[in-house]
Design goal:
Blueprint: E1 2-4, H1 21-34, H2 38-58, H3 67-86, H4 90-105, E2 106-108, E3 131-132, H5 154-163, E4 169-172, H6 179-187, E5 190-195, H7 198-210, E6 219-223, H8 231-237, E7 243-248, H9 271-288, E8 289-299, E9 302-304, E10 307-309, H10 311-321, E11 325-333, H11 338-341, H12 344-354, E12 361-368
Parallel strand pairs: 3-11, 4-5, 4-7, 5-6, 7-8
Antiparallel strand pairs: 1-2, 8-12, 9-10, 11-12
Helix pairs in contact: 1-2, 1-4, 2-3, 2-4, 3-4, 5-6, 9-10
Bound molecules: S-adenosylmethionine.
Length: 369
């Protein structure tokens, strides 16, 4: 999808009566593009580079737009113009100018997100490597770590940017304290979260009420067993046609007991029973997920009686049996959990003595329907 945003007079004043940096750049580049003299073209590019550098020197954060994104974006425009200066022919030089102009004037988005691929360099925060080393937990707004076992908000943050568009519907089959739903509310996605635990949903409700809803989206919490509920009926209840992104962050079997409820996957009697639950949910999600959309499964492994149980890969396999295509296996670091922090030395001793490694990672499996 490509659209032109520069139909307007590029020198039109903004609401404060001044011409924006982007408007000035567009004006200059359009003029340069029309030049037929190679030397004049290069001179004008040099002037434009000076203009941009001077502007950035005066406005180090380029307060006109989101600072991080715009800094990288400005850097990529500069890089393009410097490439144009090095070109050996007028045509090649014009090609680079046109490219810079395009990134300023047209928006190119795909079917499953709102990223403008004409400005793809302006998303340095989006991870594209399969190894995620995420720093401190985001505690902004309503996010908090009070629900033991909740994931860091950076996980849904990354997923929503890559795999959803504004106003899409996101389903979280293990909503817990609502981390995914908070992120959805913040970024203009509608959300549906299911959880078996009333206690978790009460926390989620409080969290959501503490988070602003700048885009006026919907967030629904459902107290149900994700392995038994009909997702079609659930969607119908809220007037939703289909889901655009589904997230599963189940218990890592019995590592953390979430409740006494026997339907709780953390109470599954054995690994087969746990995996049956995972497969049932993947099956149900398949029936409501739009074609080509994504399902993310966040899960870790566990030790039992001195043996590494590859819960992650077992679960991945169950989801694939339901006809999804595996798109990525991400390995993400995690911090030492509260319980284990005081016992770090003990764990190191045990690892050395017992011939094993202390868990420091979990997985995010990405599947496409
Ligand atoms: C790892 S936590 C999810 C945390 C969530 N991502 C967050 O950030 O708060 C797993 C959740 O699964 C829920 N759960 C376990 N078995 C379930 C089931 N059969 N149906 C629905 N929820 C279940 C637990 O109550 C728990 O809240």
């Amino acid at each position: 999808m490509e659209s032109d945003s520069a139909g307007l007079d590029v020198r039109e004043n903004d609401k404060h009566g001044s011409i924006s940096k982007d408007q000035e750049l567009i004006y200059r580049l359009k003029k340069i593009e029309e030049l037929e003299n190679f030397k004049t073209m290069k001179d004008e590019i040099t002037n434009t580079i000076l203009f941009l550098k001077e502007y950035l020197f005066r406005n180090p954060n380029d307060s006109a737009s989101v600072s991080n994104e715009s800094n990288d974006y400005n850097a990529s425009i500069l890089e393009g113009l410097e490439q144009a200066l090095k070109a050996y022919s007028l045509d090649r030089c014009r090609y680079y100018v046109r490219r810079a102009l395009k990134s300023l004037t047209s928006v190119k988005t795909g079917k499953i997100n709102d990223l403008n691929m004409n400005r793809w360099k302006s998303y340095p925060d989006i991870i594209t490597d399969s190894l995620w080393i995420v720093g401190k937990r985001d505690r902004s707004g309503a996010h908090n770590a009070s629900y033991w076992g909740n994931f860091i908000p950076q996980i849904p943050q990354q997923l929503l940017k890559r795999y959803t568009k504004r106003n899409d519907w996101v389903l979280d089959a293990f909503a817990g304290s609502g981390t995914t739903l908070i992120e959805c509310q913040r970024t203009g996605r509608n959300s549906l979260g299911i959880d078996l635990s009333e206690e978790a949903l009460n926390k989620a409700k409080i969290n959501l009420s503490r988070e602003q809803n700048p885009y006026g989206v919907e967030a629904h919490l459902v107290n149900a067993d994700s392995t038994a509920v009909s997702y079609r009926d659930l969607l119908a209840k809220y007037g939703i046609n289909s889901i655009h992104l589904a997230i599963m962050h189940p218990p890592y079997w019995d590592i953390i007991k979430f409740s006494e409820d026997e339907r709780d996957l953390s109470n599954a009697g054995n690994v087969e029973q746990f995996l049956q639950g995972i497969r049932k949910i993947a099956h149900e999600i398949h029936s409501v997920l739009e074609e080509e959309r994504y399902l993310a499964l966040v899960i870790g492994d566990k030790y039992s009686k001195g043996e590494w149980i590859p819960l992650g890969f077992y679960s991945m396999n169950e989801v694939m049996k339901e006809g999804y295509r595996l798109k990525s296996t991400i390995v993400k670091n995690f911090d030492v959990t509260r319980g284990k922090k005081s016992q770090q030395e003990l764990w190191r001793y045990r690892a050395l003595a017992g011939g094993f490694y202390v868990f420091k990672h979990e997985y995010i499996f990405l599947f496409q329907k």
